[in-house]
Fold this sequence. Notes:
Helices cover 32% and strands 19% of the residues. By secondary structure, it is an alpha/beta fold. Strands 3-2-4-5-6 form a 5-stranded parallel β-sheet. A 5-stranded parallel β-sheet has the order 15-14-13-16-17. The longest helix has 20 residues, at 477-496. It is elongated and about 85 Å long. The two termini are 33 Å apart. The model is unreliable at 183-192 (pLDDT under 50). The protein binds phosphoric acid mono(formamide)ester. The site of phosphoric acid mono(formamide)ester has 10 residues, from α6. Phosphoric acid mono(formamide)ester (CP) binds at residues 249-253, 323, 332, 456-458.
Amino acid sequence: xxxxxxxxxxxxxxxxxxxxxxxxxxxxxxxxxxxxxxxxxxxxxxxxxxxxxxxxxxxxxxxxxxxxxxxxxxxxxxxxxxxxxxxxxxxxxxxxxxxxxxxxxxxxxxxxxxxxxxxxxxxxxxxxxxxxxxxxxxxxxxxxxxxxxxxxxxxxxxxxxxxxxxxxxxxxxxxxxxxxxxxxxxxxxxxxxxxxxxxxxxxxxxxxxxxxxxxxxxxxxxxxxxxxxxxxxxxxxxxxxxxxxxxxxxxxxxxxxxxxxxxxxxxxxxxxxxxxxxxxxxxxxxxxxxxxxxxxxxxxxxxxxxxxxxxxxxxxxxxxxxxxxxxxxxxxxxxxxxxxxxxxxxxxxxxxxxxxxxxxxxxxxxxxxxxxxxxxxxxxxxxxxxxxxxxxxxxxxxxxxxxxxxxxxxxxxxxxxxxxxxxxxxxxxxxxxxxxxxxxxxxxxxxxxxxxxxxxxxxxxxxxxxxxxxxxxxxxxxxxxxxxxxxxxxxxxxxxxxxxx
Length: 501
Ligand code: CP
């Protein structure tokens, strides 16, 4: 059997689409008109749904509403399918309650997609009626699912996949059967889309611009979950996540924990004071004990730069860096970039000033790595003791004067003055720091009218940032917190798909 074999040509595809449309017209529009909507399931259900709407409108004058549905967060095979982490747009522009809806997909195969789609749709409300339309019904379903409207029935052996190609996405209309290809881990090899391949999130430095953009796109879909009535998806059902915070945290810890709950993971929280690190156990031993309990993911904050990388190479769990010393805080940088992109449309070409204790800041380094990769100009500003010229080697511009640093910038990100380091004498007093580098009513005048004010928190009000500005119209500080949840849901979901157990 050839690797790829055409089993239906363009004419047969056209006739099959017509047959599905006729079936829908016959049920909903022939005798009396019943209001209904069509939900295209990504990927190929979407072009099929659009074609069905076009035919129905042409034949009857009635134009059903279109919704888009991505079911990746509802699948039950995370970690098995390597192409799983691809999330597309879900858009439901109507109230699902009491609505008659037709789910549309290209192929009814195992039935898993439709099981997931039913779960997803019913999280948006309680439809009055759900029907299923497919172009190809291949038989051999694993789940007890049948289609109400079928274009073509095929009997295809299990070892072959049915692939529908449409002019809109593939340049031609046809149905093929292809070999399922398996990689060494027994997973299905990617079908040509962008794939997330990392089991750990260690540092923004390790990510390509495409990987950063992919996380931000994925986070956009997870943000919508938190805006629904049902703010939870089953994506990490059955996975165990351990939050291990060896350094204090409010925002990051809360945000990760809520993200894990929203993804339906089981969660264990450990802090340094309640762990055996206090009794002299090594970090690696502690983590190996967590691994022995079959944890899938470990979210860790630790004061030692590089500690996550050391562990990630030695254990099979996925490791997510929630901050390591002054080195890296990747999810903070991702939520900062998400917020900037959401507000400004794009990051390329923007000017971003980061002001404060750069020397000790994992946020500054992480933001700079990410923003530079996405094409922004990055400026570091603060006293010369906290912003040495050596940072220029990263590709940022260094300023020791606030007015010059923030002139013409699109974003100013204020960093916390770290009181715990004050005894080292990096600047004479917090009062003097506030006078020369604090953003307040006076120094706000240096900013453009549309400059965003950001802060990773916690804020020292009246020192690096005045309360009137922290709570003012330019401030996106609380939106950063909201977006942090979406970004953390996205990275947990993506790395979980790559943890091999
Ligand atoms: N922004 C941030 O990392 O805050 P926490 O230290 O409270 O987690």
